[in-house]
Amino acid sequence: EVQLLESGGGLVQPGGSLRLSCAASGFTFSSYAMSWVRQAPGKGPEWVSGISGSDSSTNYADSVKGRFTISGDNSKNTMYLQMNSLRAEDTAVYYCAKGWVYFDNWGQGTLVTVSS
Amino acid sequence: EIVLTQSPGTLSLSPGERASLSCRASQSVSSRYLAWYQQKPGQAPRLLIYGASSRATGIPDRFSGSGSGTDFTLTISRLEPEDFAVYYCQQYGSSPWTFGQGTKVEIK
Asked: What percent of chain B shows pLDDT beyond 90?
């Protein structure tokens, strides 16, 4: 059974940083692309970033490009999202999801709140 | 980027009825690269349909997807109590991948 467990969310001031983690199990992590998708309160989901399983190539939404960095550690079956220069509009539940273009398994999410 | 507009915003139906949810794209979605998700309160989205009409693993056959180009439809043939939820479409034909704003299916 595929399991994805996010951690690292919390309250941070504007301009601050956070690193999210996603621990994966139940599948061969290195063989699959993984993504981060966020959902602001009362809104639809928004794709944030993806990393391929084959060559670790990455892709970012324009809204986070230059501020967020996605990475993966195949030895730990874990994906990360380093978030810098956080803004109020980054406030959302951040989901880890399996897939590059569509997402067939999701974690339970971790809440990131950017506020002073 | 491709903007997806879902309609109606809310659909009020009774169990056993048929539901038809629309997703319209601001430009053609290449190769029918469209997915549908279901989300219940406090839960993550769940993949229902990909490739416009292919059901994901474990999804009941009362869920079906159709359409091409700019117009897509999710149909639930007979609503079960567990189907009352919010549904989102998502296109992956052109980066950035984008989602619609959702259709809520509520009990009438």
From this structure: 97
| Chain B residues near residue A95 by CB distance under 8 angstroms | 44-45
Tell me: the pLDDT tens digits for B31-83? Answer: 889 999 999 999 999 999 999 999 999 999 999 999 999 999 999 999 999 99
Please choose, from the candidates B21, B45, B5, B53, the residue with its C-alpha nearest in 3D space to the C-alpha of residue A103.
B45
Query: Looking at A30-101, which runs of residues are DSSP E strands?
Result: 34-39, 45-51, 58-60, 68-73, 78-83, 92-98
B98/A contact by beta carbon, under 8 A? yes
Q: How far apart are CA A38 and CA A60, in angstroms?
A: 13
A42 contacts: CB under 8 Å, gap ≥ 6: none
Which DSSP helix (H) or strand (E) runs through B88? strand B86-91
Cβ pairs bridging A and B (under 8 Å): 47
